[in-house]
Amino acid sequence: MSQKKKINANNDDFDKYTRELQEQILEQIKKKYSETVIDHWQNPRNHRKIDTPDGYASVKGSCGDTMEMFIKMGNDKISECGFQTDGCGTTIVCGSIATTLAQDKTFIEALAGVSADVILKRVGGLPASDVHCAELAAETLRRALADYLCQKKTPWKKSYKRS
Ligand code: FES
Questions:
Q1: Which atom of ligand 1 sits closest to the CA of residue 136?
Q2: Does 89 share its domain with 152?
Q3: Going by CA atoms, what residue is nearest to atom 1 of ligand 1?
Q4: How far apart are CA 63 and CA 131, in angstroms?
Q5: 22 and 85 both lie in a single domain
Q6: Could you tell me if the CB of 131 is within 6 A of ligand 1?
Q7: What's the domain range around 141?
Q8: Is the same domain home to 17 and 74?
Q9: Of the chain's two ends, which shows fewer C-beta atoms within 10 Å, N or C?
Q10: Are residues 116 and 47 in the same domain?
Q11: How many domains does the chain have?
Q12: How far apart are CA 157 and CA 151, in angstroms?
């Protein structure tokens, strides 16, 4: 076999091995997590920074991971809600769910209606070891809403924040 054919055969073997490994990992994940979790893990919604947000928060969770949340208000509703995190896949899922739930809600509706319990219910539950990821997402949203309220009362503070 020529050197080129050997390299191509090795690449094909490696691709096959990688595909099989990915399928095995996905099968393991499916045993532990709901379809909603896998959907938001593979296609996170609102995973972005929003420039000049009306409300912003950065919160470090009990595990040491951080989540940031950005909200924009329009017509007394949350017109945009984005998040970023350096956390695990489940954190990304919870940020995705929290921002989706907050979208188009009034301040009060988001504050009262997007809790860790609601996020957990929406994702179809999480293993006990991942519950804190939902708590982190809910707490980050709550603080971003509090920041919005603070900025609304004292708009001059906004210009001193986040260069
Ligand atoms: S493991 Fe840290 S927030 Fe999910």
A1: 3
A2: yes
A3: 88
A4: 11
A5: no
A6: no
A7: 41-160
A8: no
A9: C
A10: yes
A11: 2
A12: 6
